[in-house]
Hints:
Layout lengths: L42 E3 L6 E3 L8 H6 L3 E5 L5 E4 L1 H10 L13 H10 L5 H12 L6 E8 L4 E10 L7 E7 L1 H16 L4 E5 L5 E4 L1 H7 L18 H17 L3 E7 L6 E11 L5 E10 L1 H59 L5 H29 L2 H6 L1 H16 L2 E6 L8 H22 L3 E8 L3 E8 L6 H5 L5 H11 L3 E6 L5 E8 L6
Parallel strand pairs: 13-14
Antiparallel strand pairs: 1-2, 3-4, 3-7, 5-6, 6-7, 8-9, 8-12, 10-11, 11-12, 14-15, 15-17, 16-17
Helix pairs in contact: 3-4, 8-9, 11-12, 12-14
Amino acid sequence: MGEVLQGPPTAVPEPATLDSARDPVVSCREQALRGTPPVSKKRVASKSSGNRVARVPKFSDGYSVLNSLAAHLAVLGPDGTIRFTNQAWKRFAQENGNPRLSAVGPGANYLEICARAVSDGAPDAQVILSGIKDVLEGKRSFFSIEYTCGSPTEQRWFTMNVSPLEGTKGDAVISHVDITRLLGQREREVKTLLDNSPDVIVRMDREGRYLYVNAVTTKIAGLPAEAILGKTPREVGIPENLSDLWTRSCRDVFDSGLPQLIEFPFPSPEEETIWEERVVPEFAPDGTVQSVLMIGRNITERKKLEKVREAYSAEIRALAARLLTVAEEERRRVSRELHDQICQQLASVAIDIAELAAHPPPPPKERLRSLRALEARVVKTSEEARHLAYELHPSVLDDLGLVSALRALCREFSAKRSLIVEFTNGALPGSMPREVAACLYRVTQEALQNAAKHSTANHISVALTFGEGTVSLSIEDDGVGFDIQRVKGRGGLGLIGMEERVRLVNGKLSIASQAGRGTRIALTVPLPGGNL
Length: 532
């Protein structure tokens, strides 16, 4: 390795650490990881004697340092020849007691050992060989890999690091660090994390057998981990359809290397549940899929909420579609009322007034009778105009307040429909937002109309109460009742309109109805600032 000068050499004792060592990785059928190289020597000319003498080996100054390290170290030449190993390397080989390692020492070619390990099918050997070659050839500045290594007492894990040796041309340093304890601690931490996860987490091999299950899995299966590991889903009692589904999904992930997301029903003692499972590939260092991780989550509640959301969205879409139609129908009705009633009556009054103006004045009695008739027709037209305006917006809400408006509505409705409508109210709040008052009034109006039209009720009670920061309204009848879901599905605006009005003022609406037992509509609306 070093420069050789002319002259006869002087022998230099070889340090004990430079004896041929046995490679611990060979004992793991990964014969590509360690060796004990001879130390190259330099000769230098002695200026005082003129004789050529051998220099101390290049590595000698660092022997004590290298041999004190716990890591197993080796130095390779550019062609892969082992130049040096430290004491930890040799000691590990001796502890594992594999006589085949004695051949892996100074002068042995590490790359050739790796190639033989590849031929023997040693795990990760090809990845290790390629990584070492890349560092020696300058294609990469660092290579690292974790690997497992068996010993007489336990299974150990190591990290192998390969990097160029500073100050040399093409040499490389290989180190192997025992990370068994570190991985043990990491494994315990990960196990704690996985066991406290709400998800089902399992690892499967290529044969579809369980390699790992977390605590949630054993709880749901009702079996200890020992009764699950090493078996297939079907062998632990999973229904055939689910077992086949999981097997197909795992096989697809092993073949494609791509994750999958599956959804399936799973029976439970209480009810059938819906599960979502992510099937994720776990890759080996050579890029192949070595296992599959399956992460399952119970999404039953989420599915229920999605159904509620879909139903609610459908109602909103129906409401939006109907609103356009209703708005147009309302315009048409108002237009017809104005044209057929008010405008016609005003035109008739105008004609009669013109007749009076065009002819000589009639006798006083006849003139008085004509004026009285005109007055009555004008009053009738005014009443119809007032009624039309009231339907568009009850001005009594603004003039007299919610309680008076509801009392008047109930009294008028009772008189027109020949029903008993009872209205009661509690203490009044100091103020009532206009939008809240309008909501309560319109809900009452709609509920009364529905009761009279559909329920054949004889008695309706309307109660307005005020609590701490809230106002509540209930409308209850003794009619025939109805099926709420069927009514909502017909596309009408009644119940949907109520719900939307209450939602816009941040209130809560409940509707209870049973066949033959009448209907009760109740809503509660918060008041701004909670003031009464």
